[in-house]
Specification:
This is MD-2-related lipid-recognition domain-containing protein. Keywords: Signal. It comes from Chironomus riparius. By secondary structure, the chain is α+β, with helices and mostly antiparallel strands. It has one domain: Sandwich (Immunoglobulin-like). About 20% of the residues lie in helices and about 45% in strands. The protein contains two helices and nine strands; from the N terminus they run H-E-E-E-E-E-E-H-E-E-E. The strands form two sheets. Strands 1, 4, 5, 6, 8 and 9 form a six-stranded antiparallel β-sheet that branches. Strand 8 and strand 9 form a beta hairpin. Bound molecules: 2-acetamido-2-deoxy-beta-D-glucopyranose (2 copies). The site of one 2-acetamido-2-deoxy-beta-D-glucopyranose has 5 residues, from strand 7. The site of one 2-acetamido-2-deoxy-beta-D-glucopyranose has 7 residues, from strand 4 and strand 8.
């Protein structure tokens, strides 16, 4: 009886460790620039170990604000299904957002770049270089499989018109 319990306990512990030791790998990234007169954005995946992301944004005009909307998707039944989507967040409110997905993306990007969180957003070059995502930093447990993080950016012009700027998709695989 005791032996069985110990066995169960061991199974639980080893199962737990198995999940923790799963690994998250960065697969690819795609950037769609929606208004190339307002700005140009590029993303690339570097073959470092682990892989990392370089993101460069060249803003050609000032904007009153830039709104970001974040989404997380899980690949189930042959397609990416949305798991979480945030509201549109003003770039100047990023540091004080209490949404776990927004906080996570903001903290990771701030580590390795000079993305601004000041409004108005001045024209210039902003970058995130060599961003790696470690599983231990992800704010939620991940089942194994394929994932996508999506960020949509919209500029707010001085006349308050909204200009869709880009859609960024980052693809991951979690394996256990
Ligand atoms: C980003 O924009 C696309 C196209 O409009 C839309 O299908 C998608 O749901 C948006 N994603 C987020 C996270 O807002
Ligand atoms: C961000 O850093 C890059 C590279 O050092 C620099 O060229 C650029 O001017 C900086 N951008 C801003 C807005 O400070």
């Amino acid at each position: 009886m005791l032996a069985v319990n110990v066995m169960n306990l061991l199974l639980i512990i080893t199962n737990g460790m198995f999940v923790v030791s799963g690994s998250l790998s960065l697969d690819s990234a795609e950037m769609r620039v929606l208004d190339s007169t307002f700005g140009n954005c590029e993303v690339k995946i570097l073959p470092t170990k682990p892989k990392s992301i370089d993101l460069d944004v060249h803003a050609f005009s000032d904007a009153k604000d830039v709104l970001l909307q974040f989404g997380a998707f899980s690949f189930i039944d042959g397609k990416y299904n949305e798991v979480i989507e945030t509201e549109k967040v003003s770039i100047c409110d990023l540091p004080k957002s209490d949404n776990p997905l927004v906080q996570f993306m903001y903290k990771e990007m701030k580590k390795v770049g000079n993305l601004t969180t000041a409004c108005p957003v001045l024209k210039g070059h902003y970058y995130v270089h060599g961003l790696t995502v470690y599983e231990s930093d992800v704010p939620m447990p991940l089942p194994s499989g394929k994932f996508k993080l999506e960020v949509n950016g919209t500029a707010i012009k001085d006349d308050n018109n909204a200009v869709p700027l880009f859609e960024l998709d980052i693809f991951f695989t979690e394996s256990v």
